């Protein structure tokens, strides 16, 4: 059996996630690739293998919590441990051909479901594996675009906009990061989040009609540094902007807001608070 460390990178069949997966494989990680597109995923796994790395593709649509649970079950069944979880999968403020508010398979606002709730559930499912491999790290790929959560309108049935939905989901990731870091502080599992780079050359940015300012390699370098740099091993419960520690939206530091989000997330994901699998 391989003695390499294992990383799971969600949303790794394109853009930032693909670049991160390639970098981790070059550093010797056995990489679990995730995405919705089996052709892209299998092609990337073959590419990594051809370069001497080790990768496996697992398919799941993060718009379905049933598929998220299946991905978690597969990892729990097949992996003896997990050294690194990078929650990168997400969708942007706009999608080609989509108009107005969209819902997930479970009836939740789509961006909240895919960008935040799926990662919340997957992380909760995989905590036993991460704990078994400690010291381990969790990196949540968030954004500098952050909009405060209105707990009376979390699914944005009122005043909807794609950008608000996206920015709300990204701030939710930060609240979750801070909350989980405190929960795991004695377990030697570090939890951080970051804005990797501004307007990278990705399909998400192009769909917004924005001219890219950075490459995906710029963003991937920031993610991999947070995930692997020895000097950051003890950093947890922090938000980074690229390579530097930064301040998130003030709501991220509101313990009442974090508790409310944890409670509603457990309810929406049908995952009991404090459960490990």
Characteristics of this structure?
277 residues, alpha/beta, Rossmann fold, 8 helices
Structural notes for this entry:
The chain has 277 residues and is α/β, with parallel strands linked by helices. The chain has a single domain, classed as Rossmann fold (3-Layer(aba) Sandwich), CATH 3.40.50. It has helices at 15-26, 38-50, 65-78, 110-132, 162-183, 203-207, 216-228, 255-268, and strands at residues 6-9, 30-35, 54-59, 84-87, 136-141, 189-195, 238-241, 244-246. The protein has an 8-stranded mixed β-sheet with strand order 3-2-1-4-5-6-7-8, with helices on both faces. Helix 2 links the parallel strand 2 and strand 3. Helix 1 (15-26) crosses helix 7 (216-228). The longest helix is centred in the middle third of the chain and has 23 residues, at 110-132. It starts with 5 loop residues before the first strand and ends in a 9-residue tail after the last helix.
**Overall radius of gyration:** 17 Å
Largest sheet: 8 strands, mixed
Query: Judging from the principal axes of the Cα atoms, what is the shape?
Result: globular
N/C terminus separation: 25 Å
CATH domain class: Alpha Beta
Q: What is the string of helix and strand elements?
A: EHEHEHEHEHEHHEEH
Q: Order of strands in the sheet with the most strands?
A: 3-2-1-4-5-6-7-8
The CATH superfamily is: NAD(P)-binding Rossmann-like Domain
Proportion in helices:
40-55%
Count up the domains.
Answer: 1
Structural class, please? Answer: alpha/beta
As a percent range, the share of strand residues is: 5-15%
CATH architecture: 3-Layer(aba) Sandwich
Q: What name does CATH use for the topology?
A: Rossmann fold
Calculate the mean pLDDT score and round it: 93
């Amino acid at each position: 059996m391989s003695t390499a460390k294992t990383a799971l990178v969600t949303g790794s069949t394109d853009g930032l996630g693909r670049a991160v997966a390639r970098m981790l494989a070059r550093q010797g990680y056995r990489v679990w690739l995730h995405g919705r597109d089996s052709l892209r995923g299998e092609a990337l796994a073959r590419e990594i293998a051809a370069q001497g790395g080790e990768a496996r593709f697992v398919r799941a649509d993060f718009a379905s919590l049933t598929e998220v649970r299946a991905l978690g079950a597969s990892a729990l069944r097949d992996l003896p441990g997990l050294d690194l979880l990078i929650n990168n999968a997400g969708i942007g403020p706009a999608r080609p051909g989509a108009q107005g508010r969209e819902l997930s398979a479970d009836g939740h606002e789509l961006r909240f479901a895919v960008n935040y709730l799926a990662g919340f559930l997957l992380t909760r499912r995989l905590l036993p594996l991460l704990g078994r491999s400690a010291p381990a790290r969790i990196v949540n790929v968030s954004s500098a675009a952050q909009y405060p959560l209105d707990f009376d309108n979390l699914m944005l049935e009122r005043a909807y906009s794609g950008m608000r939905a996206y920015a709300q989901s990204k701030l939710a990731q930060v609240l979750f990061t801070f909350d989980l870091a405190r929960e795991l502080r004695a377990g030697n599992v570090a939890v951080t989040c970051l804005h990797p780079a501004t307007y990278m050359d990705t399909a998400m940015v192009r769909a917004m009609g924005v001219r890219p300012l950075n490459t995906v390699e710029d963003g991937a370098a920031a993610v991999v540094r947070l995930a692997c740099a020895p000097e950051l091993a003890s950093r947890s419960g922090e938000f980074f902007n690229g390579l530097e520690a930064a301040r998130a939206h003030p709501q991220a530091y509101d313990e009442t807001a974090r508790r409310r989000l944890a409670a509603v997330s457990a309810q929406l994901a049908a995952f009991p608070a404090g459960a490990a699998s």
